[in-house]
Design goal:
Elements: E1 2-4, E2 7-9, E3 15-21, H1 25-34, E4 39-44, H2 47-58, E5 63-68, H3 74-85, E6 88-95, H4 106-125, E7 133-137, H5 141-144, H6 150-158, H7 178-201, E8 206-212, H8 218-224, H9 229-238, H10 247-258, E9 269-272, H11 276-282
Parallel strand pairs: 3-4, 3-6, 4-5, 6-7, 7-8, 8-9
Antiparallel strand pairs: 1-2
Length: 286
């Protein structure tokens, strides 16, 4: 409050809030593009990662707050949502967290990338502000996996979150390796976004996903140096674009989907892979 000529003037310090889950290069690029004028809460399992991204953004003039959170835990997800709401209305949410096939075992990939993302969409969908928007950073990997049956797609889209990891198609005897687990998780991301967009729409909000290909980030570098490194290097060398992408190119699409110009887009997924998926099915990568 400010006392001015004996009149009390109340200043509203509540802001619109941008929740970023996953303190990585893609998430930061999107937050820098869309989070100006907002309170940006950045959650990551490694608090040091969140603090580092916050330092970079704070030095560029953004209002940021780091938080430790575990995407595999519903309680942790609820905690960061409560923290976000303490600053104002939750207007935007971006989920850019996850682990790659070279970073974790099958169980961890399914618990974080599949279950955790589903819970986050569910819980944020209960509190997202009217005209709010959300975005899940999925992956081209979900598009390269052979088609599932309509019944399997329905199960991934609509099974209650606490029952997801009990689905027959997600049991260890049905998952070949960590890459297959990652593909299933990313297929589930896209299907959950479609299903959740109906619920978000009841609040006047929108949710979409993007499926990047090879984007140069620390996670991608882990893949380049991992057991499938030659495969990934060959992928971007032989895709129509002939190169990997950048985090800012993902942010270009995110800007459309999160902003007013994307007001008629919800429940959709956008491939951002330099044509790698097209080449995988119909070109040099076939």
């Amino acid at each position: 409050m400010i006392l001015f000529h004996k009149k009390v003037i109340t200043i509203n310090t509540m802001k619109q809030v941008f929740l970023l889950v996953g303190a990585g290069q893609i998430g930061m690029a999107i937050a820098r593009r869309m989070g100006y004028g907002m309170k940006i809460v950045i959650g990551d399992k490694n608090l040091n990662n969140a603090v580092a991204i916050c330092d970079v953004m704070r030095n560029a003039g953004f209002d940021v707050e780091p938080a430790e959170m575990d995407l595999a835990s519903r309680d942790s997800i609820l905690d960061i949502i409560r923290k976000s709401l303490s600053f104002g209305e939750l207007k935007m949410m971006v989920c850019a967290a996850g682990v790659s096939p070279s970073q974790a075992p099958i169980e961890t990939i399914l618990k974080i990338d599949l279950y955790g993302t589903a819970v986050l969409l569910e819980e944020v969908g209960k509190v997202i502000a009217p005209n709010g928007t959300g975005l899940v950073v999925s992956s081209q990997s979900g598009h390269r996996m052979p088609a599932l049956t309509p019944e399997e797609d329905m199960l991934l889209a609509c099974t209650p979150t606490e029952d997801l990891l009990q689905l027959d198609i997600l049991q260890l005897d049905r998952i070949r390796d960590t890459l297959h687990a990652y593909q299933m998780a990313k297929r589930c991301n896209v299907k959950r976004v479609m299903a959740e967009s109906v619920k978000w729409g009841e609040r006047g909000a929108r949710i979409n996903s993007v499926s990047p290909g090879i984007i140069v980030t620390p996670l991608a570098i882990d893949e380049f140096n991992g057991p499938r490194g030659d495969f990934y290097k060959n992928m971007f060398a032989k895709c129509p674009a002939g190169r990997p992408g950048t985090a800012d190119e993902v942010a270009n699409v995110a800007e459309l989907l999160l902003g007013d110009k994307g007001s008629f887009i919800t429940g959709s997924d956008f491939l951002i892979d330099g044509g790698a998926t097209a080449s995988y099915f119909y070109g040099a990568l076939k």
